[in-house]
Each structure stands twice: as C-alpha cells, then as structure tokens.
Design a protein that fits this description.
Helix content: 25-40%
Order of helices and strands: HHHHHEEEEEEH
Number of helices: 6
Strand order of the largest sheet: 1-2-3-6-5-4
Largest sheet: 6 strands, antiparallel
CATH superfamily of one domain: MucB/RseB, C-terminal domain
Length: 235
C-alpha cells in the first residue's frame, strides 16, 4: 500500500501566490534599510599596508617643520680665532719663560724689525707707569710677527704683537669705543684681548687685566700704544 503524502499541484501554487499578491498590502522598503542591506552585503574592506606608513610620515613631517627653527645653524669658522690663540700662547710663554731685558731692547729692536719686515718709525717706548721690558720676533700662523712686552707699576705683563694683516677680516661684533678708536675686545681664559688694524698690520694687545678697574687701565694702555705706534707707509 503506497504511503499517502502531500501532493503539490503547480497550478494551485501559482493560484495561491496570485491570491497573496492581490489580498496583502505591499509597502516599499525604507531607503536607509536598503543602504544598510547593501552595505552588509558588500565585502569588508581590507586595510592597506601604506596607511600606517603615511600616518607616520605625516607626523614626522610636522615634527620636522616645528623643530627646524630650533636646530643649530651651521657656524662658519672664525679666521681670527687661530691668531688669537697663537697670541695668547706667546703671551703665556712670555709669562712663564720670559726674562725682562729692558737694557737689550734698544739694540735688539732694529734688528728684529728688519728680520720681521715690520719697521716702526714710532712706537710706545714706555713711561712712568709702563716699562718696555722685552722684544722678540715670532712666527704666528705662518706670518712673521713682532712682539713687544711691557710691565706696568702693578706688575701686570702686557704683550703687544704686530703682524701682516691686510687680508685679515675684523668683525664688527664685539667692538668697543675707546676715544675715537673701535678695537675688538674679547676675554679668553682669564685674559683680555684687544684687536685692531693699522694700515696693513693686525695688532693684538693681551694682558690678565679682566676686572672692571683693570679693564679701564687696559684701555688706557691701548690708547698709549695706539697713538704712539706708526706703521710703515705702504707703497
């Protein structure tokens, strides 16, 4: 005996679908529901490998732009510094090893002027407060130089050094007004140093006068040297 089952009639199924379509109300789906269904049906986006890299690069660029003004600028070398160090070295050597020879200066000075090529028609020979105690020829940074050593009444030793310096630049920064002159003033390792130019000569004056009182006397000594020294006339 055959088992009884539900016999599907294609004609009845079609009639049933038509009845549902006629009797049941139809409402359009909301727009947001359609968009939500489409979004859910779309495949998920995969993260790009370059997204974190671009973010890091943008952050680094911002930091670089912010920090760039704070970076130290390239400092150009000062061509005057080697000469200052050489003058300070000569002065220190004179303090340690130099012997006062004021009696020998008159005889030695003309010979040293000839050897160095720095002939001075006039120069400061000393007075009641300052005594010329020594003179010697030197080589400073490959240039022949003439060094005159003085000692004042308070036992301060001063070195006055002259060398060819027509090509030596002298910066405006750091200059001081002393009478009608404007030499460069600097302090290095407990010493005061004045630098100026006369014609084709570069002139250096160094001493241990660093206090306010001593510095005032140092400037007065500069005036004595500057006014009394006459470099040779250039051709």
């Amino acid at each position: 005996m055959a088992a009884q089952g539900f016999n599907e009639d294609p004609g009845e199924d079609a009639a049933f679908r038509r009845l549902l379509a006629e009797r049941l109300p139809r409402h359009p789906a909301p727009a947001h529901l359609r968009e939500a269904i489409v979004a859910l049906a779309a495949p998920p986006r995969t993260s790009r490998w370059w997204a974190p890299a671009l973010s890091a690069l943008a952050t680094a660029l911002v930091m670089a732009l912010v920090g760039f003004p704070l970076l130290p600028r390239t400092v150009q070398p000062d061509p005057l510094q080697p000469f200052m160090r050489a003058v300070l070295s000569a002065h220190t050597r004179s303090l340690i090893w130099g012997e006062p020879r004021p009696d020998a200066v008159p005889a030695a000075l003309p010979r040293f002027m000839e050897e160095t090529g720095i002939g001075l028609p006039w120069f400061f020979r000393g007075d009641d407060e300052v005594q010329l105690i020594n003179v010697e020829p030197l080589i400073v940074e490959g240039r022949r130089a003439l060094a005159l050593t003085y000692k004042d009444s308070e036992e301060h030793v001063l070195t006055y050094l002259l060398l060819p310096g027509a090509d030596m630049p002298l910066p405006d920064h750091g200059r001081v007004q002393i009478d009608r002159f404007r030499p460069l003033l600097t302090k290095v390792n407990g010493f005061s140093l004045l630098v100026w130019k006369q014609r084709d000569l570069a002139c250096f004056l160094v001493s241990d006068m660093v206090s306010e009182r001593d510095l005032s006397r140092f400037k007065e000594f500069f005036l004595k040297v500057r006014r009394a020294t006459e470099p040779p006339a250039t051709n």
